[in-house]
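User: I'm preparing a small set of examples for a lab meeting where we compare how different chains pack in three dimensions. I only have the primary sequence for this one, and I'd like the structure in token form so I can line it up with the others. Please keep the answer compact; I'll paste it straight into my notes.
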Amino acid sequence: QVHLVESGGGVVQAGGSLRLSCAASGLTFGRGGMGWFRQAPGREREFVARIRWSLGATDYADSVKGRFTISRDNAKNTLYLQMDSLKPEDTAVYSCNTNPPSPWGQGTQVTVSS
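Assistant: Understood. Below is the structure token output for the 114-residue chain.
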């Protein structure tokens, strides 16, 4: 069973940066891929970024393109999301997941103040 644990969230002022981590256990890195998602209060969970193991190809939502960077460390079974130039509209609970999907972790809260 895959177990996902997110960390690194916090409160930051607009324009600031945060780096999120997702520790994955029970997962064979190298198959499929992983991604970051977020859910703001009163809104549906939305896609943020993903990375495929083969060639490390990445995709980003238009709203974060150029500001967020997804990466992974296969040796540590850890996924990262570097978030720069944060905006108040980035405020949400951020979660990671695999492709194909696994049970969701608890997520990590990111709050960006204006």
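A couple of notes for your slides: Residues 4 and 24 are 5 Å apart (CA to CA). The chain has a mean pLDDT of 94.

User: Perfect, thanks.
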